[in-house]
Every structure is written in C-alpha cells, then in structure tokens.
Amino acid sequence: MDFGLTQKHALVTGASSGLGLAIARALLAEGATVTLTGRSDERLRTAIADLPEALRDKCDFTAVDLGDPDAAPRLAEAATRRTGQVDILVNNTGGPPPGIASTIDPDVMRTQYGAMVDPVIRLTLALLPGMRERGWGRILTVASSGVVQPIPHLPMSNALRSTLVGFMKTLAGEVAVDGVTVNVIAPGRIATARTAALDGAAAERAGKPVADIARASAASIPAGRYGDPDEFGAVAAFLASKRASYVTGSTIRVDGGAIRAV
Ligand SMILES: NC(=O)c1ccc[n+]([C@@H]2O[C@H](COP(=O)([O-])OP(=O)(O)OC[C@H]3O[C@@H](n4cnc5c(N)ncnc54)[C@H](OP(=O)(O)O)[C@@H]3O)[C@@H](O)[C@H]2O)c1
C-alpha cells in the first residue's frame, strides 16, 4: 500500500525517544521528511545518528522545551522554514508524574498543563491555517489509554490528556471539510523509557522487584506483552497517510486489547 507521504513534511514533537521517535522513523520510512523535536540537542543528534543511513538526510531537528511559553511559535517557524510547509503535525509530549488524585498538587498540574496541553493547542492552531489553505493536513495527538479507561495513580495524565481529546474532537468537526484530519492515538503499554519509569514507581509503591511488576502488567494485557514502539509508529504513519483520508475525529487504541471497555 502506498501511503503517499513522499512529498510530505512532518513535525513530530517529543521525538528524541520512545513513541515520538518511532513515529518519526515510520514516517521517514514511508518517504516523508521529518523535523524532530525534544529538549536536548544532544539527544536529538543521537536519535538521528541511530537511524538507518538512508533516512538521516530526510530529517532535521529543533530543540525546544514545550513548557516554554514561546515553544509553539518557535517550533512552527523552525519547522516551516525548512520546506515552506508542515503537512503532518504529530503532537507528542512528556508524561506527568504519577500520584494520587486526592492529594494532587494543583501547582504541578498547572505546570504540566503548560507543557502537555497549552503548547499542543498553540502548535496546532499555528500550523492549521496552512493545511486548510492547501486542502490537506494531518494532526495526530498521542494521548493514553487513560482517556478511555482512567489509569490509577496517573490522575494528571488522565485529566490533561482528556482535555486534548475534547479539543481535537471538536476541531476535527470544523476542519474535515478542508481535507484536514484530526485524530488521537491512545497507547496502552508500549515498551519505552516512560513505561519502565512507571513500572519502577509501581515497584517502589508495592515494595516488589520491578521485574515482577512488569510481568504482572504484561500478563494483564490480552496480547500478553507490552507493545513495541514500531507497532505504534506504524499505526501513526497510516493515520498520517493519504490512505487514511476518511478517518477523523477518532481515538485509535494501540493497546494489545488492554482497554476492556467497548
Ligand atoms: N509508552 C507508553 O506505553 C505510553 C502509554 C500512555 C501514554 N504515553 C504517553 O505518550 C507520550 C510519549 O511516551 P513515551 O513512552 O515515548 O515517553 P518517553 O520515552 O519518555 O519520551 C518522551 C519524549 O518527549 C520529550 N519531552 C519530554 N518532556 C518534554 C518537554 N518539556 N519539551 C519537549 N520535549 C519533551 C522527550 O525528549 P527529551 O527528554 O529529550 O526532551 C522524549 O522525546 C508521553 O506523554 C507518555 O506519558 C505513553
């Protein structure tokens, strides 16, 4: 299947590792050019150096902290400078700390809003007009299975990502007629540094070895294992493709069956 991405330019945030990097890799493999972002020049350079040689020439990077108030305009400008346009925006951010809803620190939550929600909305609004004018665009936002089935000990993640789901669903209805699709991807448990850190925190809470926690967690997933980041990237590349032109306003689960609700 030809995804039709060879003339397309994507901006992928949170792309120095994990899910964002896997999405960038999948888009590059389908022929798109990609601007990767993260907070650290060095980590982005390393991520690009580890890509297959044939893909390296098709990417560049800009280091920006999404928590900075001017992150969105800086990123939009830098990504647009390269090819004159951004056709595909992949909104991916760092995740908030775990905690208990009843003892949450609202100041921390406000800071997390500033790094996970506010820049995503601003970046989307900055790049949307060009997509609408050209009659083609793809906006993908990485959320979590927690937006369908809230995850214990992740109250900020459950709440803040649900804000984005509500925003993106509303936006999808406004811009579908202009050829711009807007979708959310909900990972269950995909093996990344973030999943390892959360397993570490759960092991500490339970006073158990982290391997026991990870084994029990994998066993609770119908697929019997954590997902591979490339399995996640492949779904994102499809949603970004020309072939996915009639998929919009959806929250697509990539969870090995972990979410039990229909
Ligand atoms: N993996 C899963 O199974 C899973 C499940 C549900 C939800 N999620 C969510 O999906 C997102 C990606 O997950 P992941 O597993 O790929 O996590 P990850 O491996 O920790 O990657 C996070 C990425 O975001 C970047 N980042 C973090 N904070 C940033 C900031 N303030 N400004 C700019 N970039 C920032 C990191 O780059 P630098 O550190 O270099 O800046 C990195 O590239 C996270 O929000 C995570 O909570 C993941």
Automatic annotation (TrEMBL):
Lineage of the species this protein comes from: Bacteria, Pseudomonadati, Pseudomonadota, Alphaproteobacteria, Rhodobacterales
Family: Belongs to the short-chain dehydrogenases/reductases (SDR) family.
Pfam family, one: adh_short_C2
Gene3D superfamilies in UniProt: NAD(P)-binding Rossmann-like Domain
UniProt organism field: Pseudooceanicola sediminis
Annotated protein name in UniProt: SDR family oxidoreductase
InterPro entries, A to Z: NAD(P)-bd_dom_sf, SDR, SDR_fam
Origin: domain of life: Bacteria
